[in-house]
Every structure is written in structure tokens, then in C-alpha cells.
Prior knowledge:
Layout: E1 2-7, E2 17-23, E3 27-28, H1 30-38, H2 42-48, E4 59-63, E5 72-77, H3 86-101, E6 107-110, H4 122-137, E7 156-161, H5 167-192, H6 200-214, E8 217-221, H7 223-229, H8 232-238, E9 246-253, E10 262-266, E11 268-272, H9 292-307, E12 312-322, E13 334-336, E14 342-344, H10 352-363, E15 370-375, H11 379-385, E16 390-394, H12 397-410, E17 414-416, E18 434-435, H13 443-452, E19 460-464, E20 470-471, E21 477-478, H14 483-494
Parallel strand pairs: 1-7, 2-5, 2-6, 6-7, 10-12, 10-15, 11-12, 14-18, 15-19, 16-17
Antiparallel strand pairs: 2-3, 4-5, 8-9, 9-12, 13-14, 16-19, 20-21
Helix pairs in contact: 3-4, 4-5, 5-9, 6-9, 8-10, 9-14, 10-13, 12-14
Amino acid sequence: MEFSIKHVQPGRSKAACVIVGVFEARKLSTAAAQLDEAAQGHIAKLLRRGDMEGKSGTTLLLHNVPGVSSERVLLVGLGREPDFGVKQYREAVAASVRAVSATGATDAELHLTSLDLDERDIEWRARQAVTIAQETAYRFELMKSRKDPAKPPFKHLALAVTNRGDTRAAEAGLRVGVALAEGMALTKDLGNLPPNVCTPMYLADQARDVAKRYRMKVQVFERADMEKLGMGALLAVARGSHEPPKFIVLEHRGAAKDGKPVVLVGKGITFDTGGISIKPAAEMDEMKFDMSGAGTVLGTMKAVGEMKLPLNVVGLIPTTENMPGGHATKPGDIVTSMSGQTVEILNTDAEGRLILCDALTYAERYQPAAVIDIATLTGACVIALGHVASGLFANDDALAQELLAAADSAHDRAWRLPLWDDYQDQLKSNFADFANIGGRPAGSVTAACFLARFARKFKWAHLDIAGTAWRSGKEKGATARPVPMLTEFLLKRANG
């Protein structure tokens, strides 16, 4: 889908479809009222007849409205005016795209970006409109032999601004929105691909493609390279798989060469059986999403490249399968991590922290400004926070606040959980420096505490996205979270 910013009054639009909002109690938004004036009260008359009440996310499509140049007028419900906020705005944009896509219209003009919204400026509203529109229009059909029959494609969405002075800010929001949408689409595609396609080698190839397109530096370390680096924890997870592991390093240099980078570390388990501690069969197919941290890093790096962000950003992706087999790591095995610390592996299904810990140690060489790891790490985080918020842990309060502010701005929510030393006792081992699990109590916290032992030399945050990276059920698929949060965080860092 293509986007543009257009300074136009709704009554003068010549788009195939013009989209305006209606609040509950049949109250017209400013743009809808202007359209109704051009139509000599035709829209208000339909509403008084009871054709639409204005409930949030509802739509009513009108054809050949008198006095209006557009073939179609789409009314979108905004809910109660006093309650109108970010949630209702997002619902309205998504409902608009769904409704227009079901018609034969190839272009539309959206007049929702002019709505007053919780002190969110036009740049934010335009950015959100673009990303929501692309997200709503997204379909994953790469693996289908027959595509779903569709109407003529909805190709172009113009974001209308009523104040010409808002045009430049809206265009800035559009550019960021398009870059973010591109990154999110890559993350979704990677997550939705089957595990026999999206292997560690495939992720490495995708990193090379991103590097080539955006002139980034890329390195892909093989098993022998990891052995030389002493990545014993990562290699322990890879032992049971026939797919060779990879350690991917992707570098965007958008600022001074000596500028300390932000390092993003993404868990890349392309399929997780649990290893010898094998998972139940039910819903095991969803373990293809266990590489969502890696997908997030690649999607965020793509967005960074699209924006040509003036910031140094490094993406680190340890990636492998976690499989059972004659060579697989066993419960009770002890391995030596790249940091030199030894780990007793009590459960081979707690493998994400093992591949991440070596990547965190590798991150030290960059003397980073901050390190953020992203991982579908624990089912315990899903129990704690459900599918609404990602779990956030950090060893630095300022970094945590930055990420929470970015999460709020992007509407990609996170919630901070404790990282107190009191929990470290649960990781004690009689035979190694510590164990890779701490029992059932506070499972997401002890997993973060494990990682914290490898992040003492820099400011670090951990995002547990086990509950937010994908949806199950009828709408099963990758969500691309937390690409919006991380992109917002990096944007704010770049803009100082």
C-alpha cells in the first residue's frame, strides 16, 4: 500500500472513498460535519434514521452521497467523545482499512488524522495510521499454492490534514510509519514461516539481505567460530540438531565511528522441542515462533535502515534449533559459557537463556551505550502479564524508564518486573557456578536473574515477549511486537 499526505477538505475529495468519523449519540466529527454540509444534511438524516450509532470500530458505507465527489463515503464509529483516545483511534483506522478493502475502491482518503487525541500530535497520528493500515492489510500467503481471491487491491491511502501548517509534521510521521511497517512485515514473515524454511541458515541469509540493502556490516559465525570464542552455552543447545547453528552480527553505523552503539540481542530458536526435556505435543507447532526475538532484531534493523537513523545500532542473533537426539545435551550436564562461568543444565527446555548469555558476553566488546535482549523466554511471563504487556527487566532505572516511555508512545506496552538479588538464590547449584532454572516460583524473574549475571558490565534490559510475540487460535500468527517499542526507543535516542 502507498501513502501520501493531502491537504483537502472532505467535501471536495475525489478519492474513490472518503473516510470520516462519527461519535456515539450520532455526533459528527468536524470532517464528517463538513461532508454533511456539502451533502445538505443527507448524512445526518441517515444517522437520525438509526443506520449507525457511532460505536467504536463500527462502519457504514454510503454510495453516491449527493453533493460529494467521491463515489463512496465510509462512516467510522469513534465511540463516546469523552472516551475517545489511542485505543479508539487505532480501532477506527483498522476498521476503515478492513471496510475499504472489502469494496472495489483502489484508493481512499482518511480524515481521522485530524481528530484531537490525548495530546498526540499530527506526526504521531500519521505514523500510527500508516502502521495500523499496513498491519491490517497484512496477509501471509507465501506458502499457499492458491491465493485467496480478492477484489481489486486497495493501493493508496491519503492521510488528510485540514491545516496546511501540519503538512510537514504529518509527512515526517508518514516516513517513520512506512519504515516501521516495513520492519514489522519482515518480522511477521519470519515468524509465520514454517520451521523447515526459517532455519538458522535462513535467518543468516535474511541478515545478509538487510545488510546489502542498507549498507550495513554483517558477519555470520559458524560452529567452528563459536568454538573458538568459547560459546559453550550456545553450542550446548545446538548439539541435538542437524541444522548448523549461526551467530549473526549486524551493524548499522549511522553516527560517529567511536559512538557507543545500542546493542539488540534476539533469541533465535527456530524450533523448540524442549530438547530432552521435551514439550507436550499440543500446540508444539507454535514453537516455530521461538525465534521471534531474532525476527524482532532483524525487523528493527530494517526499520533503522529505512530511516537512515543517525545512531549506531548492533544486532546480535544467536540462532539454532533445540532438538532431542543422541548428541543432545542432557539434564545434569555442565557447560562453560563464553564468560567462563559454568552452568548446570537442569532443564533443556530453558535453552533461550543459554544462547542469550553467550551473546551478552559477546556484546561487551562494543562497550555499548545500552544492551537490550528480546526473547520469547518464559511461559511464566504469559501467566503474569497475559498477552497485553511484554515483561521488562533492567539493571538501570533510567534505561527502564526510556523503554517504558517508548512502549507507551508506540502503544506497544511493557510492564517492569523486579530483578532483585533475593531471587538469585533460586539458581544455586551444588555442582556448577549456578543452574539454568530456579524452579516454578517467579520463573520469569529467575530467568532474567540468570541473564543479569552476564550483563554486569553494561546498562542492560531484557524484554520477555513470550505472551506478545504471536497470537494463537483462529488468528494465529506473528504480531511483530516489540518492533514498534524498540523503533520508538531508538528514534528518541537518535533525536537526543
